[in-house]
């Protein structure tokens, strides 16, 4: 595929973005601001304001995750069939309705309906946007506008910045009430809807619409893509320990989970400030596979660091240092893995079905996280020696390295030759 260089603009790292790529990257920023303005405060609202039992709160949050991650494959397939514009606009409408409904929901059935709508909305617009960013990044790379991984790194930075700003906005509005938070989230998506109705093209050149029938069986026979899904799922399972194993370790060290906010802020700050330099370094030195391997090794090292410190059973502020080291290594691993995995999908996907494959990556890896998180919870509660759960978790990314596809794709070999010619 080739595209003209008309309309490209240089940005940091030598990447020249088209107007469409700028719109899609800003879309990710806006999506996450609106979403994370509400999500961090949902569980407390359900437990205290509505009076749900703890198990029911967990169930509601799990249903939201399932309706989102589990149905990404549906949203991706619809984007392939109908184009990204109608799918993104429909997703925005559903998210507006879901947030508005949640703000007024006072009974369990009503809350469940609202969170399912909120989750399904993301299952529509997220794979549509992500797949088109990946497709445009490949076209940009082929036209000489810059590396696809740098474009996808910008996409990651925009998402992380939104995840950082959103909770701050939500916390300010929570002083009014939770309904105000929900309505503000809905308002952000009203702006996104209006902007996309105006700016998103009716037809994107080079994007052909593909029949829904026949795509999934071919995907399930694509062993190399499924291997990437398994490796990416192992990474997400490891990353999920920020919300499972890490809080338990922080509670043990200082008797409170208050430092978690600072550790999460550290992770977000690292991504926002270091993602582009890290990606720039990796792009010139590593293939996509090697970038993912290095990221998985860093994550395994982070788990091993906590495992090595646990037998000492120290407490107090200094006992948080291994946890902080874990967060830093996990975040560095994320910065190497996430853009590389997204950049790899176009090389493995069937022509015309990039949306399906992008959605399937999230759905398959989400199922791995669901099963793995249950196993991790039992592992942490099993009364084993304190270092054992962390050592077992360290093994997971190491095993994932073996699952990665081994043969380089044609596109990667071409880029490798190009790098060598520049030396």
TrEMBL record:
Transmembrane segments: 20-42, 48-66, 87-105, 111-130, 151-172, 178-201, 222-240, 260-279, 291-309, 321-342, 354-375, 387-404
Keywords, in A-Z order: Cell membrane, Membrane, Transmembrane, Transmembrane helix, Transport
Residue ranges annotated for the Major facilitator superfamily (MFS) profile domain, each copy included: 20-414
Alphabetized Pfam families for the sequence: MFS_1
InterPro entries: MFS, MFS_dom, MFS_trans_sf, MFS_Transporters
Localization terms from the record: Cell membrane
Membrane protein topology class: Multi-pass membrane protein
PANTHER family: MULTIDRUG RESISTANCE PROTEIN MDTH (PTHR23517:SF2), RESISTANCE PROTEIN MDTM, PUTATIVE-RELATED-RELATED (PTHR23517)
UniProt name for this protein: MFS family permease
Organism: Streptomyces pseudovenezuelae
């Amino acid at each position: 595929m080739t595209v003209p260089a008309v309309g490209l603009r240089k940005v940091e790292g030598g990447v020249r973005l088209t107007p469409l790529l700028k719109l899609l990257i800003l879309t990710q920023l806006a999506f996450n601001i609106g979403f994370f303005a509400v999500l961090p405060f949902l569980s407390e609202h359900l437990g205290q304001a509505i009076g749900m039992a703890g198990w029911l709160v967990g169930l509601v949050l799990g249903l939201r995750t399932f309706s989102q991650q589990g149905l990404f494959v549906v949203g991706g397939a619809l984007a392939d069939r109908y184009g990204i514009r109608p799918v993104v606009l429909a997703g925005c409408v559903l998210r507006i309705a879901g947030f508005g409904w949640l703000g007024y929901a006072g009974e369990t059935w009503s809350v469940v309906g609202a969170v399912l709508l909120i989750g399904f909305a993301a299952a529509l617009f997220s794979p549509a946007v992500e797949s088109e960013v990946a497709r445009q990044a490949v076209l940009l790379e082929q036209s000489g506008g810059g590396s696809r991984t740098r474009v996808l790194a910008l996409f990651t930075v925009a998402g992380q910045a939104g995840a950082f700003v959103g909770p701050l906005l939500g916390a300010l509005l929570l002083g009014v009430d939770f309904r105000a938070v929900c309505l503000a989230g809905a308002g952000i998506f009203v702006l996104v809807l209006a902007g996309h109705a105006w700016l998103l093209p009716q037809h994107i050149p080079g994007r052909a619409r593909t029949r829904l029938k026949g795509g999934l069986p071919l995907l399930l026979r694509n062993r190399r893509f499924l291997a990437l899904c398994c490796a990416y799922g192992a990474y997400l399972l490891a990353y999920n320990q920020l919300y499972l194993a890490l809080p338990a370790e922080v509670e043990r060290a200082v008797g409170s989970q208050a430092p978690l906010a600072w550790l999460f802020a550290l992770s977000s700050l690292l991504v926002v400030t270091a993602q582009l330099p890290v990606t720039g370094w990796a792009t010139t030195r590593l293939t996509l596979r090697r970038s993912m391997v290095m990221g998985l090794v860093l994550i395994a090292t982070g788990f091993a660091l906590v495992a090595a410190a646990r037998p000492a059973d120290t407490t107090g502020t200094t006992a948080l240092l291994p946890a902080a080291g874990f967060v830093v290594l996990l975040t560095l691993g994320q910065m190497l893995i996430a853009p590389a995995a997204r950049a790899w999908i176009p090389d493995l996907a069937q022509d015309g079905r990039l949306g399906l494959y992008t959605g399937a990556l999230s759905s398959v890896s989400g199922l791995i996280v669901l099963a793995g998180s249950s196993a991790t919870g039992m592992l942490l509660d099993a009364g084993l020696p304190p270092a054992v759960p962390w050592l077992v978790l360290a093994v997971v990314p190491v095993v994932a390295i073996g699952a990665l596809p081994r043969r380089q794709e044609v596109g990667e070999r071409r880029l490798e030759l190009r790098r060598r010619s520049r030396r």
